[in-house]
Amino acid sequence: MRRIGRRRFLKLAGTTALTGAVWALRPGPWATALAAQDASAPRPIAVPLPAPRPLAGLTTAATFDTPLPLPGDHSFMGLMDGAARIELSATAAPRQAADETPAAPPLCLETDHAGRPYWSPTLVIQRGAALRVRLVNRLDAPTLLRWHGLTADWRMGGHPVMMLLPGATFEYRITVRNRAGVYPYHAIAPGFAGRQTHQGMTGLCLVDDEEERAALAAMDIEPLGASGTGAYRRWGQDQGSGPSDIPLLFQDRRLDRDGVPVYAPNLDDRVSGLIGDVLTVNGVPGARLDVVTRMYRLRLVNMCNARILHAGLARADGGPLPFLLMGVDGGMLERPLPVQRLFLGPGERADILVDLRAASPGDELYVVNLPFDPMRRAGAASGGAGSPGEGEAARLVRLRVMQRADYDLPVPVRLCEAPPAPAVPQGPPRRLHVARGEVMGRPSWLLNGQPFALRHDTGADLPDDFPAQRVPRREAEVWELSNDAVSIPHPLHLAGYQMRVLERRASPPQVAALAVDASGRSAAETGIKDTVLVWPGETVKVLVDFRDSPAEPQRAALYSRVLECLDDGMVQDVAVP
């Protein structure tokens, strides 16, 4: 373990934030790794799903009979036009609506729409339109919104140094240049991100464009927001009257006996990130979605603080069901790719197509978490007593087939014209290695053997002697992101910029088994990414595109999306001229 003294630390890190308790560093239990599989002929994996667990204070969670909340003309996740000027209040005292399931969380982002309170609203906006959101901090602590994945000026996208003090306001103004996709927003103020996101301050921003609408129209899938706010209709009796475009926002939480989220991380949580007792989807555990025999798009969004998901589909008996990968963080793939499972680290997204035409009324299927080795070798992070551990098999959502639908449309062979990748530059890559170490006598995370360096002012220019990563030109760069063997999986995110995975090396068997080419990339890594999961002992080579950076000098933030690590100062300034 690398040790850094006080004098050396102050010289290197300047005003780098160090928050949180002293960590206990001890090896934690880790599950047996999955056997490597031939990528050209993956074997089906039967999943013996455990019996649903009864949860105190949650009467329907064990039976998976809680209707899945969907964006619409109601308060929770309420659908809103992202091009309208919106005011969001960060509040710990949300107004309640009598007919809502679930109720507002302890902390939330609240606004008014059509004469009623909305919290965690789902914003739908067209590519090319202007997103204007005024944030009002009504909390007794600093806060900040991160527009995860949106390409924007560094001040507008949610750089950690732009956090708001209690009572302050800030207006985000972003001209949306991203392709259609899911770009979630969440609290990210250093020292407070884990608590505020865990307790409810997160939501969805969905970007729409003509290219995606054409691909969905070919499958008769109505995109969310196509008819304006309220496009989601409540389930009716007519065939096909339910929605066919389903966002699934995953969070895990620790709940008290009344089902209220409680955030009290222990020392292991501060090492590895907090793993919650209960998995929730769109705010509820034990969710049920009624479906018919047609094609659906499910939009998987991992907004857990630290939990990795190993997502798949299964019948009620655990038998696996294949599906098609349609899109990832940065939008649609050129062609849909058949997959059986995929890893989603915190901050990662995946759009999948699920074909239910062969199902029969009365059938039940599940979105599941498949067993895997979490590889958290720097701490325990195993959830609370009786909770589903991170690598355990678990049901996430129950799909109940209600009736047959008149549906016979094929999946398009080609979805879109993929944006051309920038040329890969010659020369050595920029190497960034994450490892555990000590700073001023306490455990911390290091980057290339030195403390992460975040300067706590709001100026764009960083002093020459500040230890930032410096991009010399607005061109594409090759970065090698590597993770120490004694570490945890880190979902690394570079705010404001997109990446393409070029290669994975020294991947664990469960990751190597998903490779679809000789470079070790999975199907999800053939698209555009903004968050890349790097496992312990692994190196991931990525192409980072700086060509379309905003005109003024930029301060990008490179950080681990494990929010407890971010809260402890695992944020690195990156200077872009």
Can you describe what's shown?
The protein is mainly beta. It has seven helices and 37 strands. The strands form seven sheets. Strands 1, 27, 28, 29, 31, 33 and 35 form a seven-stranded mixed β-sheet that branches.
Please count the beta strands (DSSP E, at least 2 residues each): 37
Helix content: under 10%
Strand content: 25-35%
| Class from secondary-structure proportions | mainly beta
Broad shape: globular
Mean residue pLDDT: 86
Query: Regions with pLDDT < 50 over 5+ consecutive residues?
Result: 5-45, 54-60, 228-240, 381-386
Alpha carbon gap, first and last residue: 34 Å
Number of helices: 7
Global Rg: 22 Å
Major beta sheet summary: 7 strands, mixed
Kindly summarize this structure in a few lines.
The chain has 577 residues and is mainly β.
